[in-house]
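User: Some background: our group keeps a shared notebook of sequences we're curious about, and every so often someone picks one and asks for a predicted structure to add to the entry. Today it's my turn. The entry only has the sequence so far, pasted here. Could you supply the structure so I can complete it?
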Amino acid sequence: MSRILIQNVDALTLDEQNRVLKSTNIAIDDKHIVAVGDAPAPRNFVADEIIDGRNHVAMPAFYNAHSHVPMSLQRGWAEDLPFDRWLNERIWVAESALTEEDVYWGAALAACEMIRNGVVAFADHYFWMDQVARVVDEAGMKALLAWCIFGLGAEHEVGGATLERTEEFVRHWQNAGDGRIKTTLGPHSPYACSPQFLKRVVDSAHKLGVGIHLHVAESQEQVDRSMREHGKSPVAHLNALGAFDVPTIAAHCIYLSDEDIAILAEKHVNVPHCPKTYLKLAMGIARVPDMLAAGINVALGCDGPASNNTIDVLESARIATLVQKEARHDPEALPVMQVLKLATQNGAREMGFGDSGVLKPGARADIILFHFDQPHLIPRHDLAANIVHSARANDIDYVIADGQVLLRKRELTTLDEDKILRQAERRAFRLVGQELRQVREYNC
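Assistant: Of course. Here's the predicted structure to add to the notebook entry:
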């Protein structure tokens, strides 16, 4: 247990009143914030570490709501391709050669990047999730992990990813790492899983007391195929199978009808939004303001580094607000304070860390400090606008997760960055530098 006092810092609280505090103090005791601003620290509070917050702005740390972080090894290897060729000719081909050691080092590389970018938690969907869980535990991060499974037969499996193996993973890792690691089931999508298989997954989720995380309505072609095969949209199809009767993360949801939005809202489905990937692969523009107006918990994600190239939630926030303003011809669409909440507390809510994403007594101590004494961040008329539209990830000096300092004066404290960089680079070139085979085909 440690106690930290951040002194003389400006704070963007993201609380119910969206308070901005000037030259204030934040006291942390173990995993929680115990005092902010005028609220006094507990009696006998003595800090083990004092952080000088002058010329800094504190805010809640970022949560990456949907990702495939081991794909950091495929960064830059599948460029300027349409979605079907991106999957068939590059991604699913490279994954035929994956090993669990590749997944470990890819996740470790991603963890270094995420911490430097102010991300303390992520919802991941990939293979060999036990290796990703190891990285989360070692890094001091938090995560909601889903072992990806394809419900189309054994020939489509990667690393023996069966439903039974994922159930074993859930039993072993749920609430591990002192509660920092949570698990969920990860059927890939309704187009890559048969209805019968999806029903088995839902039954298993009920039995294990966890949710599911999958991809939904990424393209109009997927919607059209679902209508042909099931007579329903992907959202309505999943709802009919009972998928939304457990806590569900439905990533992307780019192509939705009004009826789809109503279903997602009624069933309290979480929707991660990954705008950079949508732009890069020309996938479309999601109806984010409509989903938010309906009461859907929309959070910001970074998808995989093979499509997003970075794991930077701040970048996702900037792109998200700009895209919605242009698409709707409305400069008031998705304002900065709202998009910051998508990047923080909405992601925390999705992952089951609902006491995070705000600077107030009793909240989890997930905090980042931006160094603001720089030309591109002066003047400070609007701290939220400065962060969304002007700040860069390398302006972050400190990252704190559950009261543990993961980045101190821009130095990682829990990971051997040099070793990780060398291992990741070596494995990345091995992964794509051999004869590969296609393990499945995307044909929506």
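Suggested note for the entry: The chain has a mean pLDDT of 94. The chain has 16 helices and 17 strands.
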